[in-house]
Amino acid sequence: xxxxxxxxxxxxxxxxxxxxxxxxxxxxxxxxxxxxxxxxxxxxxxxxxxxxxxxxxxxxxxxxxxxxxxxxxxxxxxxxxxxxxxxxxxxxxxxxxxxxxxxxxxxxxxxxxxxxxxxxxxxxxxxxxxxxxxxxxxxxxxxxxxxxxxxxxxxxxxxxxxxxxxxxxxxxxxxxxxxxxxxxxxxxxxxxxxxxxxxxxxxxxxxxxxxxxxxxxxxxxxxxxxxxxxxxxxxxxxxxxxxxxxxxxxxxxxxxxxxxxxxxxxxxxxxxxxxxxxxxxxxxxxxxxxxxxxxxxxxxxxxxxxxxxxxxxxxxxxxxxxxxxxxxxxxxxxxxxxxxxxxxxxxxxxxxxxxxxxxxxxxxxxxxxxxxxxxxxxxxxxxxxxxxxxxxxxxxxxxxxxxxxxxxxxxxxxxxxxxxxxxxxxxxxxxxxxxxxxxxxxxxxxxxxxxxxxxxxxxxxxxxxxxxxxxxxxxxxxxxxxxxxxxxxx
Length: 490
Description:
This is Fungal lipase-type domain-containing protein. The protein is an alpha/beta fold.
């Protein structure tokens, strides 16, 4: 927890744009952003490192350096302007800690939102899993990873991690050119023997997790601290990453519970709750269901017009046929994560409105667009797609469940006592406001709707909670510690 609290500012400092400055200083936000960007000191431009995509006065480098309070020479490399499926990052060397810190920025730009939205499952290649099948991990973990292949992850995050891996460690064997990290950490270099720490908040934490999985095979000193990341890998990979990934979740933050399946379950629960608690007002429920489930187009076009035709056009252009048993959509390393606008407009593939209930309709529509739904034909593989409209029954299969990776530390807010203040004043002074507990990853499969689900995701909330936990642990360690170090030195 101490190292996680120490490295958290590096993850927060990656937000060099105006977004977090507006949250920290809602009134004086323009002044705070201009000051942090170094606009008032343009003469210091040449002393700041040049980052990929930075502005003329190198303001993003200035904002990062000012937030973490390190000298300009400590910032070696970085990128602040990126396209979709790319991540902004910063590489810092802390010689006093003998540590190389790689900070990955979370969601701040529209390109980051696109990466967040490309959430269909993507198959990992054996090169991606190289860090999990080498000799650094226990034999049982390696065997489980290999025996359960293929494995899947969040498509946008996996592709961002692959691109960032090439930026940091891409090597050209034909020309003999070494990658950036190989040059920095190689034998005989200035940082040889240094530890490697990857940090990131929200989307950055998820990208750092997958990137650490790729780097762990070559750099055994890699450890990832992900603060409020998105679920991004399947269960087996999440368990295998427990040796080098620490995921920290602040109370009820929503991002660590955000996935396709959790959204579908939340929507189904909301509609079921409305239908159970308001049986009299059926007209209101039906109107709400139409808006949520996007069935207006279906009722306008009729049961056989547009929707089934759109699905038939989609299946005729598919590259592979569908076998009798369940098949996963992605079987090649490159993730097909582009949005299928045609099927998205249709809303779902097939819906028998005369007999299906709201829950059945939800299951068909919610897991529908593109590869988010696989179709299992029941009439045999020889029938082909031409007779799809009349000879096939469709069973929707949910996409693979995504989980948080690594060792999960859940920071929970302590409940205050309801007794009067004068009766529990002594208790309130001794109890810390937060506590950290080890949690199971299965506990974060569903979204928790609370008043604090969005505010708990703010990075300074997590940093404040970790500081309080470390401060509460320090007196306890001193009370149970050995005699002072001076006595041993004597």
